[in-house]
């Protein structure tokens, strides 16, 4: 997994902060044009061929952060016009992802390469074990015939000097469902009919070419209009900031939000309903049920593992129940879910109770733009305190455990956790689906699936190292009721 501390992520966050500051000052249309120039000044070291290419790529990145698809780029259109359209937009638009052609490195096809560490040893296990006989030793070094190589990797496995390495295409490798491939120009394209919006490509691309479309402009506009905008923060968000319990609520208030809802309260509702549903299903002879709170997983089943559809819980997600509570309290509330997940943006568009979905990066940028230091914020105690198990939804294994503790007979539960939906995880899902369709007994009767390895605390839009977030989540969970 690409470390979140990287240059592409820093550029993205800087653009978000600059946009937020301009908008809060009422100067977005006036000032957005200068962002590329300010971030790539005339005498700076270019990241690409020249400073002007850098500025063009930055211009496209700004466009995505304003919530536009860069595929709709018009060379004659000014950034101010895109900003104006964003400020007048009633709803975010699909798809959730956009690909920056100019930023895409057009990585060469995944292949194996012999490095200078090759010793041309007498044993020559790479050459001896190659099933296609495509390796020879000349000039004191092994060479791979790219035309004959089938990328089996046996040469790399056998080299005692680790002199053979694999050069991957990160976004293609990260996609568990084969939704990304190259076009005729070598650039990457997303097949949205296959995409689950897990965000893995966005997280892994070292050039930042895979981007989500922002909604920060929409939310700031509602805040500045004086609407009753409410923040609904996921448990994973509590793990992104070093703060005492209640200080995050104080930060949301300082940012202008009318009220805050912990989505962990919605997680309690989800866990209650899923525990009840599990008991009913088992009583009626079902052999398997899966959780349903991860929208990327649910979409993966719908598109790629249809045999498993009857096993997916009918229970809605914590985001849905939290938004439903908010709208019941006051239909005029503008509900904003805040989480580290790309797939939630898609789920939010399909849920009438959810108006907007902000990423951890976006809310972090808003705090920076408004100079809010969470550690200095007042402590605000919310009315309804969630349970520890509800708050623990944010990491792998948390949902299954929340269901287990609610069962009348927890000893009957046989959980299985798929911790990260990669290619192997997809095969596992299909195996469960096949077994369920054929009414064969499974090793597990409850399968929890988290698309991101480690759970939501390692989502594609986090701003804190998942290991640090895990430690901070533990403290947050311990404060649950």
TrEMBL record:
<protein>
    <submittedName>
        <fullName>4Fe-4S dicluster domain-containing protein</fullName>
    </submittedName>
</protein>
<dbReference type="GO" id="GO:0046872">
    <property type="term" value="F:metal ion binding"/>
</dbReference>
<dbReference type="Pfam" id="PF00037">
    <property type="entry name" value="Fer4"/>
</dbReference>
<keyword id="KW-0408">Iron</keyword>
<dbReference type="InterPro" id="IPR004108">
    <property type="entry name" value="Fe_hydrogenase_lsu_C"/>
</dbReference>
<dbReference type="InterPro" id="IPR017896">
    <property type="entry name" value="4Fe4S_Fe-S-bd"/>
</dbReference>
<keyword id="KW-0479">Metal-binding</keyword>
<dbReference type="InterPro" id="IPR027631">
    <property type="entry name" value="Mono_FeFe_hydrog"/>
</dbReference>
<dbReference type="InterPro" id="IPR009016">
    <property type="entry name" value="Fe_hydrogenase"/>
</dbReference>
<dbReference type="InterPro" id="IPR050340">
    <property type="entry name" value="Cytosolic_Fe-S_CAF"/>
</dbReference>
<dbReference type="GO" id="GO:0051536">
    <property type="term" value="F:iron-sulfur cluster binding"/>
</dbReference>
<feature type="domain" description="4Fe-4S ferredoxin-type">
    <location>
        <begin position="140"/>
        <end position="169"/>
    </location>
</feature>
<dbReference type="InterPro" id="IPR017900">
    <property type="entry name" value="4Fe4S_Fe_S_CS"/>
</dbReference>
<keyword id="KW-0411">Iron-sulfur</keyword>
<dbReference type="Pfam" id="PF02906">
    <property type="entry name" value="Fe_hyd_lg_C"/>
</dbReference>
<feature type="domain" description="4Fe-4S ferredoxin-type">
    <location>
        <begin position="186"/>
        <end position="215"/>
    </location>
</feature>
């Amino acid at each position: 997994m690409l470390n979140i501390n990287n240059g592409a992520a820093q550029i993205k966050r800087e653009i978000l902060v600059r946009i937020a500051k301009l908008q809060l000052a009422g100067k977005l249309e006036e000032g957005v044009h200068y962002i590329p120039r300010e971030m790539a000044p005339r005498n700076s070291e270019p990241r690409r061929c020249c400073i002007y290419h850098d500025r063009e790529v930055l211009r496209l990145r700004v466009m995505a952060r304003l919530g536009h698809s860069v595929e709709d780029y018009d060379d004659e259109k000014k950034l101010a016009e895109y900003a104006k359209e964003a400020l007048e937009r009633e709803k975010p638009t699909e798809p959730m992802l956009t690909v920056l052609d100019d930023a895409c490195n057009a990585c060469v096809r995944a292949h194996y390469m012999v490095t200078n560490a090759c010793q041309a040893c007498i044993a020559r296990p790479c050459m001896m074990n190659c099933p296609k006989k495509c390796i020879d030793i000349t000039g004191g070094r092994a060479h791979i015939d790219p035309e004959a190589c089938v990328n089996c990797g046996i040469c790399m496995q056998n080299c005692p000097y680790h002199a053979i390495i694999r050069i991957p295409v990160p976004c293609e490798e990260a996609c568990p469902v084969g939704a990304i491939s190259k076009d005729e120009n070598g650039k990457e394209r997303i097949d949205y009919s296959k995409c689950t919006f897990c965000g893995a490509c966005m997280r892994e691309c070292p050039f930042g070419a895979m981007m989500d479309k922002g909604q920060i402009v929409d939310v700031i506009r509602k805040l500045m209009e004086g609407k009753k905008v409410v923040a609904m923060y996921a448990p994973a968000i509590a793990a992104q900031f070093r703060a005492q319990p209640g200080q995050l609520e104080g930060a949301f208030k300082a940012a202008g939000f009318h009220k805050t809802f912990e989505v962990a309260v919605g997680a309690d509702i989800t866990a209650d309903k899923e525990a009840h549903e599990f008991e009913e299903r088992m009583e009626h002879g079902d052999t398997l049920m899966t959780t349903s709170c991860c929208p990327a997983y649910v979409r993966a089943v719908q598109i790629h593992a249809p045999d498993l559809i009857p096993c997916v819980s009918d229970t809605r997600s914590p985001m849905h129940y939290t938004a439903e509570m908010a709208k019941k309290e006051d239909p005029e509330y503008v509900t904003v879910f805040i989480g580290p997940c790309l797939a939630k943006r898609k789920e939010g568009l399909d849920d009438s109770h959810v108006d907007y979905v902000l990423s951890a990066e976006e809310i972090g940028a808003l705090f920076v733009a408004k100079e809010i230091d969470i550690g200095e914020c007042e402590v605000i105690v919310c009315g309804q305190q969630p349970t520890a198990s509800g708050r623990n939804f944010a990491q792998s294994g948390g949902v299954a455990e929340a269901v287990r503790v609610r069962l009348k007979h927890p000893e009957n539960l046989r959980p299985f956790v798929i911790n990260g939906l990669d290619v192997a995880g997809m095969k596992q899902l299909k195996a469960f689906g096949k077994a369920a369709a054929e009414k064969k007994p499974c090793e597990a009767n409850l399968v929890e699936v988290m698309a991101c390895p480690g759970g939501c605390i390692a989502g594609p839009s986090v701003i804190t190292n998942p290991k640090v977030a895990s430690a901070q989540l533990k403290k947050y969970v311990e404060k649950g009721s």
